[in-house]
């Protein structure tokens, strides 16, 4: 049987895909030199703070940014970075280079970064789709997002029966009542091509990879070109991205890209695309208003006080309005996921607790071994140098939100939560390394710049490589991962017995595979009269199965601890 019935062949990028993204965000120059933004002096000790008033980037010691000629391309721009004009004839009379060679040379960075994006997306979707094919993906939360995006694709409400029925809210429960993520609607057109959760897995793989050009441009501007490639690869194989890929699809799919665009473009002085990315963050999840507030604080402390204060206020305001008004209006409970019983019921009470009980507030950040692990695993990929950059303030609110919560699920690194801040922390590490080097230069350390820059980027790359064997990308190196589970044939037989368009209750291993053609509910042993039940069972559940047989169900399949039940007359 075909591994993915009905799915169309997938190309990691359409022709011109990375270039189109860079044009939209104002970074590609199509071979033309980028206009030099005005600068505020040429003191080599000037930092981002000195130029941030007008939003321009400042050259780092050893960079070419501060010494390039007027009209020369900005170092961060991929297309403009390689737009060199070759003479038609060499001075010695030799023939001019072949046009193809000229094209490759003048666009070498754009091509290299595009290849890196394609490889990264292929790595991500290979892991996701193989897990999907082998029944290794979970019903929660992939089916919830699949049902929501399907609703958008049909120009109807994003109802999520799986979440609604399990929570006692009914079949018409909306995803917006669970989490405020209207950005999911942008994925709806993809469902016109293939209607199924595989589409979400591929989309997330591509979205994760599309953050790479902006990580590259930021790092190139601050440290240099070779360093940009090392840090970009470190992001692509980072453990937060691997972990988020392994736990299927979540709203976090959009966050590395949007946060990378926001930070890189605002750092480059391109406010419009940066602010559009900030708007995208506000539409991704209700608590990302806290990230936007953190970005505002970063801008405030690096000189852009008016813009920074505006973003900080907007982020907090949107966070409060969405939680207190929008989610309840949609039928949800904003406190369901975020409970802070030790600090207060809302953000103002939490802030008051931090002011009046600072020691208790700080102690809560380290009162469990899993929190220590999370701190270490978040900061170590940037070699802790992210703590030297004010950019770390953009990630801090989300980290505090997790570690101060009552739920211990939020404290660990076994889910997708770390991918929300991975780009920010890596960029902050790059900025922190540059600040450390400038500090050493001001203290008379002889020429520490180039060597330390390269050493830092190489170390970040090495750390990322060393984490691969301990995280889900390691599965791709195991031959066993590419072979189906012995029970796969029985699972495929069970699914083939379920008609299209019916309501079916399923266990974790079946829900996602059935979601594209049925309405999937969670099998939690509550007798709802659902027409079909497909489940993996063990000896402890045999009694539950027998109770269904005594209440109007017939056993259609019982093979290798996999059962299919059908309600008689349904």
UniProtKB/TrEMBL annotation:
UniProt source species: Microbispora catharanthi
Membrane spanning stretches: 110-133, 200-219, 378-399, 419-440, 452-470
Keywords noted in UniProt: Membrane, Transmembrane, Transmembrane helix
Annotated stretches, region: Disordered: 27-77
Keyword ATP-binding found: no
Source superkingdom: Bacteria
InterPro entries in the cross-refs: STSV1_Orf64
The name this protein goes by in its record: DUF2079 domain-containing protein
């Amino acid at each position: 049987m075909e591994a993915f019935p009905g799915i169309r062949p997938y190309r990691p990028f359409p022709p011109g895909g990375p270039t189109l993204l860079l044009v939209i965000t104002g970074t590609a120059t199509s071979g033309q030199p980028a206009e030099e933004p005005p600068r505020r002096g040429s003191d080599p000790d000037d930092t981002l703070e000195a130029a941030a008033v007008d939003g321009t980037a400042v050259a780092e010691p050893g960079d070419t940014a501060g010494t390039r000629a007027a009209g020369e391309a900005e170092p961060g721009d991929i297309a403009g970075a390689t737009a060199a004009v070759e003479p038609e004839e060499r001075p010695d009379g030799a023939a001019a280079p072949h046009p193809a060679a000229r094209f490759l040379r003048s666009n070498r960075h754009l091509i290299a970064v595009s290849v890196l994006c394609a490889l990264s997306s292929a790595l991500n979707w290979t892991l996701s789709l193989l897990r999907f094919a082998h029944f290794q993906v979970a019903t929660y939360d992939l089916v919830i997002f699949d049902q929501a995006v399907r609703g958008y694709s049909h120009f109807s409400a994003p109802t999520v029966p799986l979440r609604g029925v399990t929570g006692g809210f009914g079949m018409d429960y909306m995803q917006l009542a669970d989490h405020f993520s209207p950005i999911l609607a942008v994925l709806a057109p993809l469902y016109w091509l293939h209607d199924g959760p595989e589409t979400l897995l591929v989309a997330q793989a591509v979205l994760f990879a599309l953050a790479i050009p902006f990580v590259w441009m930021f790092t190139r501007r601050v440290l240099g070109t070779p360093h940009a490639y090392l840090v970009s690869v470190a992001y692509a194989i980072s453990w937060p991205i691997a972990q988020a890929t392994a736990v299927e699809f979540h709203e976090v799919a959009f966050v590395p890209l949007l946060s990378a665009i926001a930070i890189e473009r605002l750092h480059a002085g391109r406010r419009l695309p940066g602010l559009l990315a900030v708007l995208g963050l506000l539409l991704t999840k209700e608590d990302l208003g806290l990230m936007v507030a953190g970005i505002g604080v970063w801008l405030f402390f690096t000189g852009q006080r008016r813009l920074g204060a505006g973003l900080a206020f907007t982020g907090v305001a949107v966070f409060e309005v969405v939680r207190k008004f929008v989610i309840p209006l949609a039928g949800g409970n904003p406190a369901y996921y975020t409970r802070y019983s030790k600090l207060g019921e809302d953000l103002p009470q939490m802030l008051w607790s931090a002011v009046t009980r600072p020691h208790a507030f700080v102690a809560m950040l380290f009162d469990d071994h899993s929190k220590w692990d999370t701190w270490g695993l978040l900061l170590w990929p940037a070699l802790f140098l992210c703590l030297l950059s004010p950019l770390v303030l953009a990630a801090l609110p989300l980290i505090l939100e997790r570690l101060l919560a009552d739920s211990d699920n939020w404290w660990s690194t076994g889910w997708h939560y770390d991918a929300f801040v991975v780009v920010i922390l890596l960029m902050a590490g790059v900025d922190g390394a540059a600040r450390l080097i400038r500090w050493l230069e001001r203290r008379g350390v002889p020429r520490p710049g180039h060597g330390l820059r390269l050493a830092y980027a190489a170390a970040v790359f090495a750390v990322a490589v060393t984490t691969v064997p301990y995280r889900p990308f390691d599965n791709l190196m195991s031959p066993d991962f590419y072979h189906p589970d012995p029970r796969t044939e029985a699972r495929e037989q069970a699914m083939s017995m379920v008609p299209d368009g019916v309501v079916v209750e399923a266990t974790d291993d079946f829900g996602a595979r059935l979601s594209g053609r049925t309405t999937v509910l969670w099998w939690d042993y509550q007798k709802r009269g659902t027409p079909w039940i497909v489940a993996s069972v063990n000896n402890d559940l045999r009694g539950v199965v027998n109770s269904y047989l005594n209440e109007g169900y017939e056993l259609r399949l019982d093979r290798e601890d996999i059962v299919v039940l059908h309600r008689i007359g349904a």
